[in-house]
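Table S2 (text version). Query chain:
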Amino acid sequence: MRAGWIGVTTSAGLPAVARPRPFDLSSSSSAPPGEPWPTKPQIGSPLLGRACNFVVEVPEPTLAQLAERLAAEQYDAREILELQVELEALDRPPSLFTRLTASARQAAADHWQNFVAELGESQEAMAIVIARACGREISPEDADKVRAQLLDLVRVFPAGLIAAANSAIPIPGTGIFTPWVLHRLGLMPSRWRESHLLGRLRTQSELLRKAGHAREALAVEELHTQLEKECDRRDQTRKDAAVLTHWDANKNGRWDPDEMQLYRTELERLREVAKRFYTRKLWFLDMQGEIYGAMRLSELVEDPEIRDHLEDDDLLVCHDGKTGWVALPDLLGRQPRFE
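Corresponding structure-token output:
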């Protein structure tokens, strides 16, 4: 990802456009009770007379842009267009992902039913899953058997997209078997949300090269490389931010005065970081132990469709694994709730 301004091109030779966002430094830090979030984003307390320096990144071309270009050249790019939705589902927790169409939800439901049917063909794996779901202990060897089976399946089916669709509108007939349930039971393999997309991107780049679209194939390969790097960043962020998150150091399950002060200190530090790196794709969210991002804080705060979800205490945020996790509503101006 390179920094620049309107008119530059990517390494694949395709145009890129920078769209700087405004940032309001003069108004209140949070909406009054019962009032909607302000139109412009505000981080922390009022910042009268203070300036912010933003670095505006120029995004690589999206799969949707590539699909449009290829369609103009009479290339069937429908699958590439479908992969764009799957890619977007990796960046946001399900409660903040609103771009699923009815047809995409139906496709996700069909995929998941096929996923469960494939899993059901292995009676041993299914028996282990049912035992674990019923609260019974299973051996590490049995857990590894199921993860190996599920790894094969998530390479074939878009588990990340299925999880996003199922969280928005539960898929009928799936019962206890949803991606999130299997994940929380500790049975999903690592990178279960990304495996299908990584494989399909490799396939698409090969198909594009065979069809004589070398420049577009290069763009897809770059996206594949970038996605692998972001997987690494999510893994590293999970480790680094966990080390820096030292709340409840004595493990007594409650907020002690010194722990509240440590949290407030880290929160103020993160608010200062947010003023500078508001538009940078360096922000990660943690929802119940699953890491999402990297993303731009600006895209979250300025999206009118998700404002009602930005006060969810289950959403934690950190900056590039270099800060501890704090509650997203606290970063956006709410007073911390030590409950």
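Notes on Table S2: Confidence is low (pLDDT under 50) at residues 1-58. The chain has two domains: 61-232, 257-331.
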